């Protein structure tokens, strides 16, 4: 740990000596807040205002308004509006935005914006580049960018200190030929642009890296304050719950996971493409298995839109685990469980095969890509089609994500709030909490083509038939009598002891993987090793419905009714449960056939 901290401090010292506060370069590694991406971000903001993709940047946005406000009708703004006009859903806009972002990285910085790379050319996108080039000259954009580099430096420091934990030019050289290779990682600042790999070739030099930002919210939700301030729900535009710790180590590995995920694409995509027809596409049943259980996820998440694209994603996710497990095993394991919760039930086999063939590649002094055919062949053998559904049920944890996806198959979900709280003055508050959840769910289900009924009832109105539905229970056992009837079978429950509500663990619940995130670290702990007696404790949990086990119950509760509202948006959780007491976050995973 001391060696790691020393490396980061040395890295930051070099950063402080850099000529630019928006760019860092050491050897063959370049990290920058990219002017092209920020030019796109500012024109996007002028075109669409503070929408789902714009990050809350305070005074920086005020400065954007002052500098560029007179150009809201500029041709570049109109061209951008035209580009997005047929994007009716947020994910469609997300996709178009990152395609345009990737295209802009083919050009030099404003105001010249000369083409550097020639392999990918698109006449329609060239028109947008022309308009952005004109905008940058008309507004003197580059002067604005240089004058605001002090804003960019905070994010740049996190990105560079993340890379210092595991420099790609050091780590990747064991698995790739880096003779004529350099690494570039490009980030925007104002707009949340979907992260993507960056692979180019110029003058016989190959460039690997990334553009855009960390895959956001629904792939790997932020759990720190730094991430919370920058993350956006770029699928539904819903607000995030204010659940976070201040853990700079987590920030770095969170960013590093994104970086090595994209490098995983650079490492594997060429060979996956080469073997696509006879090795990758036949694995489509892996993706089909996810879609059968979570059809809505496959509708709104762009990673499911292509043919067998989840196979590509799993190879990138597996490589991120392979890399991060070398420096922070607990974080890597937490992330691996979230990948399984997203449906990647074969991810452990991918990791196992990386370990096997990376070792062979090093022993033989060969690039790892030469063994991709072996990896694909053995993956099909280890996870054959006839075993896919059974392995999915065994490995994918019960989560709010799966519970809410089940609702589209059932056609309805019932939200039940409690009326039993002795303090009757707040009963309207409890009902309002349920209505907030309802409103968020109605927005969440807005992209499903079928009809979804989202109903709110009090615990006094619930019938025996209601109890068999997909349920969301609001409040603890003293408030909600349905919770009081069921919570002995919950993995966690509130009990009243010595005048305090304590969230305790059900020791009869087995095979729970538990991770504790504090201000200092991330570590795997025993499920029953920690209870919570803080008055600020809140929990969100998913479990199979005991009255009808192919349905689910989501439970949202706090030590008081105000803590219950902490998890008012239940739509983006890839954990079986999460506990937050204002100081630490506990993530748990359990499985149910």
Short description:
The protein has helices at residues 2-16, 35-48, 59-68, 75-84, 90-104, 123-139, 141-147, 149-165, 168-171, 225-230, 248-274, 276-280, 284-293, 295-300, 309-324, 329-341, 347-364, 372-382, 388-395, 400-410, 427-444, 481-486, 561-564; strands at residues 23-26, 29-33, 181-187, 196-202, 205-211, 412-417, 453-458, 471-474, 492-497, 500-505, 513-517, 522-525, 538-544, 552-558, 577-580, 585-589. A hairpin with a 2-residue loop joins strand 4 and strand 5.
Spatial order of the strands forming the largest sheet: 7-6-8-14-13-15-16-11-12
Secondary structure: number of strands: 16
Mean pLDDT: 93
Distance between the termini: 40 Å
Number of domains: 2
In the predicted model, the low-confidence regions spanning at least 5 consecutive residues are 10-19
Structural class: alpha/beta
Spatial shape: globular
Largest sheet: 9 strands, mixed
Total of helices? 23
Instruction: Tell me the Rg in angstroms.
Output: 25 Å
Explain what the structure shows.
There is one protein chain. This protein has 593 residues and is an alpha/beta fold. The chain folds into two domains: 2-274, no CATH class; 400-589, Chitobiase, domain 2. 45% of the residues lie in helices and 15% in strands. The protein has helices at 2-16, 35-48, 59-68, 75-84, 90-104, 123-139, 141-147, 149-165, 168-171, 225-230, 248-274, 276-280, 284-293, 295-300, 309-324, 329-341, 347-364, 372-382, 388-395, 400-410, 427-444, 481-486, 561-564, and strands spanning 23-26, 29-33, 181-187, 196-202, 205-211, 412-417, 453-458, 471-474, 492-497, 500-505, 513-517, 522-525, 538-544, 552-558, 577-580, 585-589. The strands form three sheets. It has a nine-stranded mixed beta sheet. A five-stranded mixed beta sheet has the order 1-2-3-5-4. It is globular.
